[in-house]
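User: Hey, quick favor. My workstation is busy. Could you predict this chain's structure for me?
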Amino acid sequence: MLFLRVTCLIALLIYSFDSHSQEAAVQDLRFPPMTQFSVGLSVTYGDLADARDEGGFHAYYSYEKHVANSPLKSTYRSQGIQNLEALERKYLSSTEYLEEWNNAGIEERSRILSLFAEDLTGESLDSSIVQAEYAVQYAIDNPENWAREFRSLGPSLSLEEKFLIASQLGGQFLEKYNVDRAADGVGVVTIEELFASLASGAPGGVCRDISKAQGQILNALGVPEDNIFIIAYTTPGASHATLAVADPDNPQKILKANYDYFTQSAIGVQESALLQEGGRLIETGINYRVYGLDGRPVGTIPTEVNSVLRDVFDSTLAKSSRTNFNLYQIAAQGPLGTTLAFGAETAGGDQIKGVGHQFVYPLSPSNELKFSLAIYQRDAFRNGGQLSQDAIYLSLENRMELLRFQNETTQITAGVMTLVELQYAQNHFRYNSGNEHESETIDGNSYFIGFVEAEKELSYGSRVSGDAGVVGYLDFQDVSAGPDGGFQPVFDHFYLNGQFEFGLGEGVADTEVGIVIRQFGETGHAEFGYSFNDANRVYVGARGRLSDETPGFVPDSSRELYAGFDRRCQNRTTRAYYSKNFDSDTSQANLEFRILLDRRRHKRSCR
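Assistant: No problem, here it is.
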């Protein structure tokens, strides 16, 4: 409550001094004939799912690591088989079945050696560990044909074992990190070149090369290409790319590799929180850029902090009614726009508080500009340490109507919108070791939207309406090439909504159905409402993914039911809302209240 009192005072002070002088602001409020002033409070609270990953570990899936971690490592040492080469040599010197060995493939040789090791040590050795070692060594020795043995190995491994191999190789590629390439950002390093660098010892690639190569390895091991994504985002140091994989058996579960650091999402985590990096490379920007296995861009996902900011400012790209965070907001609206103070807690545990201002300026009857500015502070915790961030966020939306048709019963409008989001942040990251790092980062994106809106009055007081649009943005042609490879327009998503209203009893019933189509999945919603006494509306609805193949990090993909009640009088609005999310098994409630203060102080009434 103290935070709300303080931020309310700040909001009112900002509003009072928003014009050139306090006196001018008072005159604006009191004397223009149609000037109105409103204040509102909104609180959204629920039992959020804990978005922190189920641990994390550096994944070395190798024979030598197995030996080092074995309770019988002294036995391995006494037998002189600490590495795979020594095990193979010992077997060949103690057997008469060389013809069987010479005719065996890697899978059969792996089985033979695992049984031989068990006879020597008394401990079971998984043949997949041996087979993986052979596959990796074959790829290093034969870079141009690297995938052959991985394809034969794949059917015998679980998804986690496949990920362990990709993570192990990510660690080896990291040891040959190309510092010069990171500095100039020029060129593409292929997976063949990465394997060649392991053989030669020469520098290899950088994060975007390595994450793409890890995805190619997983694909060769049998993971479907459509389930593999490269995720680029801003960190305290610079831009970074990691690998994310939607479990083919449960796409709501996301596995991630940051070089050799392996994590998987906790049960119940949903949407953008699934993409958080649990280690030291925490996200400091406002967007995740998503790429397919071929490196081509396929869409963007807002970070949790950007989801908060979009909701606060009612952005065109804000999600419909659901939030995956707790939000407290107080706003004052007048002739100079809306000043607000807000605080939020995300599913990832981030604490956010700030102030902002928004105004809408009509450039012409068919052209409108919306300007939003926020200053906020964020505290975030990850497995690797703690981030303290001070940031400035700017959003510019321009809506331009290019076509309008209207008669007595029909209205059609078509146009374009542009939306620019920018953030400048000062970051202070304190590692668990006690070391500290200071940095400044800039992140942003530009979206372009083409839209059509239509409405038609039907007989007996009924009405049908709808809107549709295509959202796109600019991105790299290939994440591996980066800016050096050029830019291209990218399809982000398509949306389509339809509404139908009709008289029912003494009130009006309405239904709405909508769908959003992205390159990596579809989501939808359906809602039924009933309005009565000219001021009240009750409604129920459902939303979520339309296919089980839609990855869990897609906005609005988690399935939920919701219900609400709106009461709109001439001078006050009250809204109550409750939702139940079945993927995360969490609930959330929202209460909003707004009162309009008219200078004429006329009494208002509602039935």
